[in-house]
Amino acid sequence: MGRGNPRTAFTWAIAVFIGYNVLVSVIGLIAKLPDVVASGAKTDSITIGQVLYGNGTIMSPPLLAMVAAALLLWGARARRLLVACACTTVLTLVTAVASLDEVEGFSPRPAIYTAARWDFAIVLGVIFAVIGVAVVVSGIWYLVKSIRLALRSRDRGRPAQTARRSDVHS
After folding, report:
1. Model pTM?
2. What are phi and psi of 127, to 5 degrees?
3. In the prediction, which pLDDT does 27 show?
4. Does 170 reside within a domain?
């Protein structure tokens, strides 16, 4: 899996983040866990529209945001340093904010949730936050390594590139 390769680590972290959000969105739809904080929901009714492009569920953003994340991941894997760094920075910051928002949402249990549902939402939210931390750490690692390589390349008179690709896919 490209041991010691920040590009591969960041790609895997974002892929897991996107996959987990899709899974949790489906679970939230089935378990009827609307985003009470953002939507002010008074019932546990949740629609597919809310999951796709509305407020999402209590523990995941709308799935449309995951399409944007996938496109940003594509940009983060670009060979052009500026594009890769910009996309990586945006993905890292957005994931950090989403993870902090998720943890901040661990407030007193909303009235529309039973204790068991709320505990379930908390567990899923903690997993979301842990994956978010992995994305942030690997994103920072990828940015630092790419910038270092670019500075070294500049000193040697070569064009700047991002951190090397994994040898697994070569």
Report:
1. 0.79
2. -60, -45
3. 85
4. no
